[in-house]
Design goal:
Elements (H helix, E strand, L loop, with lengths): L3 H15 L4 H8 L3 H8 L2 H23 L4 H18 L1 H9 L1 H9 L5 H18 L9 H16 L1 H4 L6 H12 L13
Helix pairs in contact: 1-2, 1-4, 1-6, 2-3, 4-5, 4-7, 4-8, 5-8, 5-9, 5-11, 6-7, 8-9, 9-11
């Protein structure tokens, strides 16, 4: 029996160190058989998805804590801050550079398991603003969260998708526009 947390901790450490995970090396480092890791996580992509999510969840929480304002402006600022953190993360940018197709598959598809959880997390943030009476919705919560995440992905993965540089400020601006927030009321202005 493997301790999944021990394996994930070791995999996260390796990923943060250089933006990659080799299952054989990881298995040897934690003292389990490579096939055990494949069975537990369904292959390298599954393990990468879990590792990336374990980094992403606290990153979204940090972005939400840092975001000023309330309601739609706060959500736009949160998405901009989340993008800025992602754009500064060397392990993340190195993974995108080295394995762009795998990175997009793991992070932007249902099969990768990361994007659906990001959407759920953003939906929770949006719902909290609605429950606080600070925001009304132009769409159902989940649909809106999906669109906000897709906007964010567009500008975070810009170098892979369009060859342009990632731009967190555009994330905040585009999310604000989607949410009907005037640019002047978005308090987030960091260069990503």
């Amino acid at each position: 029996m493997i301790d999944a947390e021990v394996v994930l901790d070791a995999a996260r450490e390796v990923f943060i160190a250089d933006g990659r995970i080799e299952v054989g090396e990881l298995a040897q480092a934690v003292g389990v058989n490579r096939s055990t890791l494949y069975r537990r996580w369904g292959g390298r992509d599954g393990l990468l998805g879990e590792v990336i999510w374990s980094i992403t969840a606290p990153t979204i929480d940090a972005a939400a804590r840092r975001a000023p304002g309330e309601g739609a402006a706060r959500i736009a600022a949160t998405m901009g801050e989340f993008a800025a953190i992602a754009n500064r993360a060397v392990h993340f940018t190195e993974f995108l550079r080295r394995e762009p197709e795998r990175a997009l598959r793991v992070m932007t598809t249902r099969a990768g398991g990361v994007q659906p959880r990001i959407v759920d997390k953003v939906a929770e943030l949006v719902q909290a603003e609605v429950d606080a009476g600070a925001m009304t919705l132009p769409l159902p919560v989940h649909d809106l969260a999906l669109i906000l995440v897709r906007i964010t992905e567009t500008f975070v993965y810009a170098n892979v998708i369009t060859g342009e540089e990632p731009d967190a400020a555009k994330v905040a601006q585009a999310c604000a526009a989607m949410l009907g927030v005037e640019r002047s009321t978005v308090e987030w202005e960091r260069a990503g």
